[in-house]
Amino acid sequence: MKNTHTQDLLHTLYSMAFLVEARDPYTGGHLWRVSQYSTRLALACGFSMQDAVVAGLGGFLHDLGKVGVPDSILNNPGKLSDEQYAVMKTHPALGAQVLEGHPMAPWATDAVLSHHERIDGKGYPNGLDGRKIPEAARIVGIADAFDAMTSTRPYRKGMPVAAAIEQIEMNLDRQFDLNFGRRFIELAHANELDGIVGHSDTGIPMRECPMCGPVVVLHKHQKAGDKVFCRVCGNGFALEEQQSKLALKPTMQKGNAADLQALIDHDLLERLLDESLPYLPVDSGNGKS
Questions:
Q1: How many CB atoms lie within 10 A of CB 210?
Q2: Do 198 and 210 fall into the same domain?
Q3: Is the separation of the CB atoms in 131 and 4 below 8 Å?
Q4: What CATH code is carried by the domain that includes residue 248?
Q5: Would you say 62 and 140 are in contact if contact means Cβ atoms under 8 Å apart?
Q6: Strand segments (E) across 140-232
C-alpha cells in the first residue's frame, strides 16, 4: 500500500457502505456489482484507469445515504407509497452530507449525490440535465439502474439481462446518457457483464434463501460443510458442493444472535483496497488524472 492514511480512510468508507447494504437483505452484493459495472463502463468509454477506479469507488459508495432511511421503508416488502418514496429520495443528499468534510469526498460525492439524476432533467435531488450531471454520476446511474432491474426484490423477480438492456436502450438520452448507455449495451452484448450479473463477488453466484427468498451472501473463504444463515427468517444451511458450486442445504436449525448479525466481508474489502489504491489520486484528491 502506497499510502497508509489513504488506506485507512478508504477502509472506513468501504466498511460503512458494507453495513448500510447489510440492512437490506435483498441487496446482497449490489454495491460490488455497481462498482464493477461502473469501472468496466468507464474503461470502455476511454477513461484513464485512475478515473475508472474513481467511478468504481463512487459505485461502491453511492448508497451511503441509505443509512438515514428507516428500516420500515428500506425493507418494505411491497411498492413504496408516495410518502415513503419521498423519504427514500432523500438518500443521495444525505449521502453527500455523510461525505462532507471527508478527505475522500472529492472522489465520491458526484456519484453519491447525483446517481439518480436523469438526462432529461426529471431526476433527483437537483433536477440536473444533460452534461450538468457529472460523468461519474451518469456512469453509476446506468450501473445502479441495470443492477436494480436484474435483481430480485420482494415484490418482483429480477429481469433477464436482455430485458434490462432493452429498457436502457429505450431510455437513452432520456434517463440515461446516450454515449455511456450505448457503451454499456455493447458490453452486455459482448458478454462482458456475465461474471458480474447475479454475483456478490468474483466467482461467487448469489444464493436465495429457499425458505423466504432474500439473498444469502456467500464469501470466497467459505467451503462445503460451512454453516450460513438467512438474516430474515433465521434458518440455517450447510454449504454443499453440487456440480462444482456451493448450494444451500437446510439444517432445520435456527441461528442465534451471533449467527444473524451483519458481517463485513473483510477479505473482499482488502481486495477492493488492493485493486483501487494504486490508482487513486492520492496527491491531488480531486478524482481526475
A1: 14
A2: no
A3: no
A4: 2.20.28
A5: yes
A6: 199-201, 204-205, 207-208, 215-216, 227-229
What's phi and psi for 126, nearest 5 deg? -115, 5
Tell me which H or E stretch contains 104. none
Task: State which residues form the domain around 249.
Answer: 206-260
Q: Are residues 53 and 77 both part of a single domain?
A: yes
By CB neighbour count within 10 A (0-12 exposed, 13-18 middle, 19+ buried), where does 102 fall? Answer: middle
Q: Do 255 and 274 belong to one domain? A: no
Please give the tally of structural domains in the chain.
2
Tell me the whole-structure pTM to 2 decimals: 0.93
Strand, helix or coil at 240?
strand
Q: If the chain, 289 residues long, is cut into consecutive pieces of 10 residues, what is the mean pLDDT of each piece? A: 77 93 86 98 97 97 96 88 97 97 94 98 98 98 97 86 98 98 98 96 91 88 94 94 92 95 90 92 47
Q: Indicate if 103 and 219 belong to the same structural domain.
A: no
In a domain, 288, yes or no: no
